[in-house]
Design goal:
The protein is 29% helix and 10% strand. By secondary structure, it is of the alpha+beta class.
């Protein structure tokens, strides 16, 4: 990428990165992150909830991304999954798209990363 990684480091250097910035920098330096994002989160000191899967995509300039919600079924009580989009600044922008239930797990992972000394308290 043309952006320098320390551009995103914040005022206190690399130790002040938030989870999304750390993931972005890791993806830029190690393309294998997209093959095993759970292992990448573990490398960052994050305990990945076993029931949660991650699909990491490094954006391409020639691609439009469309996320389609799953079909609801009678076993789920006919309830629709509510997808949420969470924007976070890393480079230009970092986007999480996740079911409503996964939002709590994401917030816990952010807190876990901050508490390990890698975040800036945002």
């Amino acid at each position: 990428m043309k952006d320098e990684p320390d551009e995103n480091a914040g005022s206190n250097g690399p130790g002040s990165l938030d989870l999304e910035q750390a993931l972005t920098m890791l993806a830029w330096s190690d393309p294998a992150l997209t093959e095993n994002p759970g292992a990448a989160l573990t490398r960052l000191g994050i305990d990945v909830p076993p029931a949660l899967r991650f699909d990491v995509r490094v954006q391409r300039p020639d691609t439009l991304y469309l996320v389609i919600p799953p079909v609801s079924c009678e076993e789920d009580g006919g309830e629709n999954v509510v997808n949420q989009m969470d924007l976070w600044r890393s480079g230009d922008q970092f986007v999480w798209i996740l079911p409503q239930d996964a939002k709590t797990a994401l917030l816990e992972m952010r807190e876990q990363y901050r508490n390990r000394g890698g975040g800036d308290g945002r």
